[in-house]
């Protein structure tokens, strides 16, 4: 379970950063390639207006600001958990309580990221959302052909909750060890 959470967090952050790097790249920073070219290609494929890029950057900055205290607290909790595990005889009750407290903060982070993704979608036109869905499907096909992480094609940043294969928000799980 911890491995799945770690993979989800890394995949979600990588997808988020890759998508939003488009605005940075378009503003003249870097070479316009975003994270390994993905962000810049998405921005160009969606033909984002300057206003849309600015709005997405504002949304990103607000999310980062909103999450800073929660992430800081989670870091403190991790350090406390580390200390609990270092004890000669670790207390199951204390560790489980600390784990639950950490999960509460992780869920706050996840919820805010979902809110952010929905806010980004609201900035896009219907045509851009349709194009993004096509790009996501193509990316999933390419990942499936080359194996992707764990042999499955990840869902990426935007998941269609109407899709019957939607797995309650756990994105990009594929057919890794935990799903066999």
Distance between the termini: 13 Å
Q: Please indicate the count of domains.
A: 2
What is the overall pLDDT average? 73
Percent helix, as a range, is 55-70%
Secondary-structure element order, as H and E? HHHHH
Unreliable residue runs: 20-38, 151-155, 157-180
Biggest beta sheet summary: none
Q: What this model shows, in words?
A:
- The protein has 180 residues and is mainly alpha-helical.
- The protein has 2 domains: 1-48 and 126-180, no CATH class; 55-123, Up-down Bundle (Four Helix Bundle (Hemerythrin (Met), subunit A)), CATH 1.20.120.
- 69% of the residues lie in helices and 0% in strands.
- It is built from 5 helices and no strands.
- The chain has helices spanning 2-26, 38-46, 50-86, 92-123, 126-146.
- Helix 1 packs across helix 2 and helix 3 packs antiparallel against helix 4.
- It is elongated, with a radius of gyration of 18 Å.
- 17% of the residues are buried.
- Residues 20-38, 151-155 and 157-180 have low confidence and may be disordered.
Strand-helix topology:
Elements: H1 2-26, H2 38-46, H3 50-86, H4 92-123, H5 126-146
Helix pairs in contact: 1-2, 1-3, 3-4
Name its key features:
mainly alpha; 2 domains; 5 helices; 0% strand
């Amino acid at each position: 379970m911890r491995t799945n959470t770690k993979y989800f967090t890394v995949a979600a952050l990588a997808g988020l950063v890759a998508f939003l790097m488009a605005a940075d790249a378009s503003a003249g920073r870097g070479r316009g390639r975003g994270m390994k070219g993905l962000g810049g290609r998405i921005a160009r494929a969606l033909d984002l207006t300057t206003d849309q890029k600015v709005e997405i950057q504002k949304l990103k900055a607000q999310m980062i600001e909103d999450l800073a205290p929660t992430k800081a607290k989670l870091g403190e909790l991790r350090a406390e958990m580390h200390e609990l595990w270092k004890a000669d005889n670790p207390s199951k009750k204390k560790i489980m309580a600390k784990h639950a407290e950490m999960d509460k903060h992780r869920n706050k982070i996840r919820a805010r990221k979902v809110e952010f993704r929905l806010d980004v979608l609201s900035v896009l036109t219907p045509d851009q959302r349709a194009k993004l869905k096509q790009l996501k499907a193509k990316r999933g096909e390419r990942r499936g052909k080359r194996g992707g992480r764990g042999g499955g094609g990840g869902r990426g940043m935007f998941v269609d909750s109407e899709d019957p294969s939607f797995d309650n928000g756990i994105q990009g799980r594929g057919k890794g060890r935990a799903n066999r």
